[in-house]
């Protein structure tokens, strides 16, 4: 990224060009990894920033063609890091909303789910199925925008559910 080689990666750009021609690009990432002690095991915030810069600024893919799944961490960083910050770690959904706003792409957030569903490493088929159905059939709690996501997560936190176990949400956005 720093050397700018990322932005000229021919294979990546070819895939993204195909996505642009086909009028849709879906991708997922884990919302954490801003400094190194906050989940930078499976995610790195600067990678997300660079990817969004590539698709929206360099390749000029319209936001209406992009749908994003945000995977909540809560294991490599504190359990409520999606909406709360402790010692400068967390509040990732607010950071994500601000980052997407820079690209006029807030409406790209389409799905939110905890990592234990989206990144199950213990072979719990029911977890993988929930993530699959969320992405392919829109099966999940429907919420309205970032505020709806934060509200649903806050409610889950109040019952003891941490980010890693947040069930899938389908994010709806008001028409512009």
Describe what this molecule looks like in 3D.
The chain is built from 6 helices and 7 strands; from the N terminus they run αβαβββαβααβαβ. Strand 1 (25-31), helix 2 (45-58) and strand 2 (66-72) form a beta-alpha-beta unit. The protein has helices spanning 10-21, 45-58, 92-102, 115-118, 125-137, 145-158; strands at 25-31, 66-72, 85-86, 89-90, 109-114, 141-144, 169-172. A 5-stranded mixed β-sheet has the order 1-2-5-7-6, with helices on both faces. The chain has a two-stranded antiparallel sheet with strand order 3-4. It is an alpha/beta fold.
Question: Briefly, what is this?
Answer:
With 176 residues, this protein is of the alpha/beta class.
Quote the average pLDDT: 94
How many helices? 6
How much strand content do the residues show?
A: 15-25%
Distance between the termini: 33 Å
What helical percentage do the residues reach?
25-40%
User: Low-confidence segments, ≥5 residues, pLDDT <50?
Assistant: none
Taking the sheet with the most strands, its summary is: 5 strands, mixed
Provide the structure class.
alpha/beta
Element order: H for helix, E for strand: HEHEEEHEHHEHE
Question: What is the CA-atom radius of gyration, in angstroms?
Answer: 16 Å
- Looking across the biggest beta sheet, what order are the strands in? 1-2-5-7-6
Instruction: Give the assembly state of these chains.
Output: single chain
């Amino acid at each position: 990224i720093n050397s700018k080689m990322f932005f000229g990666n021919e294979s990546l750009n070819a895939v993204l060009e195909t996505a642009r021609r086909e009028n849709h690009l879906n991708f997922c990432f884990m919302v954490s990894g801003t400094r190194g002690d906050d989940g930078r095991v499976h995610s790195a915030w600067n990678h997300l920033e660079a990817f969004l810069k590539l698709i929206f600024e360099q390749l000029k893919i319209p936001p209406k063609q992009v749908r994003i799944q945000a995977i909540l961490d809560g294991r490599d960083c504190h359990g409520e890091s999606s909406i709360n910050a402790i010692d400068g770690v967390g509040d990732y959904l607010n950071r994500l909303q601000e980052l997407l706003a820079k690209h006029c792409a807030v409406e790209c957030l389409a799905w939110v789910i905890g990592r234990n569903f989206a990144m199950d490493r213990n072979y719990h088929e029911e977890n993988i199925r929930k993530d699959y159905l969320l992405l392919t059939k829109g099966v999940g709690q429907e919420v309205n925008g970032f505020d709806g996501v934060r509200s649903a997560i806050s409610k889950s936190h109040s019952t003891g559910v941490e980010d890693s176990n947040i069930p899938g949400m389908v994010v709806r956005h008001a028409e512009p």
